[in-house]
Specification:
heterodimer, A: 3-stranded antiparallel sheet, 9 strands, globular, B: mainly alpha, ABC transporter involved in vitamin B12 uptake, BtuC, about 0% strand, binds adenosine-5'-diphosphate, binds magnesium ion
């Protein structure tokens, strides 16, 4: 079943066009990787999917899932990096507005947060201060927070930026497992396409305008695909 | 209602507790400083120190306008004006993506200049100089009662919007993805700061009011490991600074607001040392 369809989407900020005529679709259990240069509109696309910004033309259709049921791992902000919150408090914040307008977190939310912590293997960090964690642990916490909101679709904006290669590999493995075992569809923005080629089943390359949308194997046969993947491994 | 508290304070065996003006000041401090500690946490988290400083300036203009309109107590006009000021700046912040420091700076300087021009127009600025350094010893019992209700109001509001406000502070786009109306939350927050700053200026003084918002929270941030501690420490530091500052100012014969800020500053330095030694 199709979860999300994006049809000829264009977005602009004031007069700058950030995205033009981008189309793609995500099915249940898909793993879509969005690639492109800096400033090519990847984060903009993510925000459009989450309906955080208005679109200029084109449509985004959600099917069988509401906007607030999408798990979201935003790009790390400066504030977050040194805010004195415990791991549990950070994960719990992902449960906000899960049920209507209740301003407090109830038992169900707390149980859910604990469950996600355990799922990601960070239950022991529960009472640690978020800012004292390593980069990899922090991203796991943010992943747990994102998962609190969703059963079906998670959207990750550059989750491995700033992580060392080993930790990056581990995080990719975890995301792949969520995708494979729990069937959660993944939309991930990433710089390094190498690390996700074997996990993703769809690649979207944008450079304001769409460059490629299709399977990883087809992508490798395009000249742009070869340039994106070749340059980094073969010196 | 106040008699009970007067007796309670009077039973503390120190000389300063004998004076009614000290009792009033102490009660006021116990009501105001926790609010400063509370609101300060979000100001520090959001790096809004400059912004909250400008709110003080806006409040000052409000007081000037209120006085000019010939109101006996210019407070009502001041509160309304500073709320409008706060909301306008919040809107500007929301609209523009680039750094808003310049915009805030321009508004803020214009506001304070306008306030000074208006108040000095009648050639009687001395009357208003208490707004600059504040006078906590000149607080009326009726004002303490109003403060009490304001205190309750802010606490209730805080409890209701806290989780949302926290998420907006940590990551605005995540908050919006969870269906939080971030602009409204921010407006409620800045308007509340505007109100408390405006009514406190007469007691604390415009020159130092922002330090009282920022220092306790900054100190708490240094030593807290989670949000609960952060809030608790900030409130506690603000309260301790307020009470110690009041007592010290009595014995030293110094300006109360400034003495409070010095105590808060010392607490901040200690917290920075603790942070470094960990
Ligand atoms: N809120 C905004 N206002 C104006 N321009 C923006 C805004 N956000 C992003 N842009 C611009 O849109 C373009 C795409 O940005 P973005 O989607 O963040 O790129 P990416 O995530 O691919 O690096 C960039 O040129 C950026 O400067
Ligand atoms: Mg980006």
């Amino acid at each position: 079943m199709t979860l999300l369809t994006c049809d000829k989407l264009s977005v602009s900020y004031n007069r700058i066009t950030a995205l033009k005529n981008v189309s793609f679709h995500v099915d249940d259990g898909d793993y879509l990787c969005i690639v492109g240069e800096n400033g090519s509109g990847k984060s903009t696309l993510i925000k459009a999917i989450l309906q955080l910004i208005g679109t200029e033309s084109g449509t985004i259709t959600l099917n069988g899932i509401r906007q607030t049921e999408i798990g979201y791992l935003p790009q790390q902000t400066v504030v977050q990096k040194d805010f004195p919150a415990s791991v549990f408090e950070v994960v719990l914040s992902g449960c906000l507005n899960r049920k209507g307008r209740n301003p407090f977190y109830g038992k169900a939310e707390k149980a859910l947060a604990l469950e996600k912590l355990a799922e990601l293997g960070i239950a022991t960090l529960k009472n640690k201060s978020y800012r004292d964690l390593s980069g990899g642990q922090q991203q796991r916490v943010l992943l747990a927070r994102a998962l609190c909101a969703t059963r079906k679709l998670i959207v990750l904006d550059e989750p491995v930026t700033g992580l060392d290669p080993l930790v990056t590999t581990e995080l990719y493995a975890t995301i792949k497992e969520l995708n494979g075992k729990q069937g959660i569809a993944v939309i991930m923005v990433s710089h390094d396409i190498q690390g996700v080629l074997e996990s993703a089943n769809k690649i979207l390359h944008v450079n304001v305008e769409p460059v490629f949308f299709g399977s990883p194997s087809d992508y490798l046969n395009t000249s742009v695909g070869q340039r994106m993947t070749g340059g980094t491994t073969h010196a | 209602m106040l008699d009970f508290f007067y007796q309670l304070i009077g039973s503390i065996p120190f000389q300063w507790t004998e004076h009614t003006f000290m009792k009033n000041a102490l009660l006021a401090i116990v009501l105001i400083t926790p609010l400063f500690g509370l609101l300060g946490t979000m100001i520090v988290t959001n790096r809004m120190a400059f912004f909250s400083d400008s709110l003080g300036h806006g409040a000052f203009t409000g007081i000037a306008i209120g006085s000019l309109l010939g109101m006996a107590a210019p407070m009502a006009a001041a509160v309304i004006f500073s709320i409008i000021f706060a909301i306008s700046i919040t809107l500007i912040k929301h609209k523009s993506r680039s750094s808003t420091d310049t915009v805030i700076g321009v508004f803020s300087s214009l506001a304070i200049a306008l306030g000074l021009v208006l108040l000095s127009a009648g050639g009687s600025f001395n009357k208003y100089s208490s707004y600059l350094i504040g006078d906590l010893l000149n607080i009326y019992p009726s004002e303490i009662v109003s403060l009490f209700f304001f205190f309750i109001g802010v606490i209730i509001l805080w409890v209701l919007v806290f989780n949302k406000l926290l998420l907006v502070s940590i990551n605005e786009s995540l908050a919006r993805s969870r269906g939080v109306k971030t602009l409204i939350i921010e407006m409620i927050f800045t308007a509340t700061i505007a109100i408390i700053v405006t009514i406190s200026i007469q007691w604390v003084g415009i020159l130092i009011i922002n330090s009282l918002l920022v220092l306790p929270a900054a100190a708490a941030k240094n030593v807290a490991g989670n949000v609960r501690q952060y809030t608790l420490f900030s409130v506690l530091f603000a309260l301790v600074s307020g009470v110690c500052g009041l007592i010290l100012s009595y014995y030293w014969g110094t300006a109360t607001g400034a003495t409070i800020v010095i105590v808060a500053g010392i607490i901040f330095l200690l917290s920075a040392l603790i942070k470094r030694s960990r």
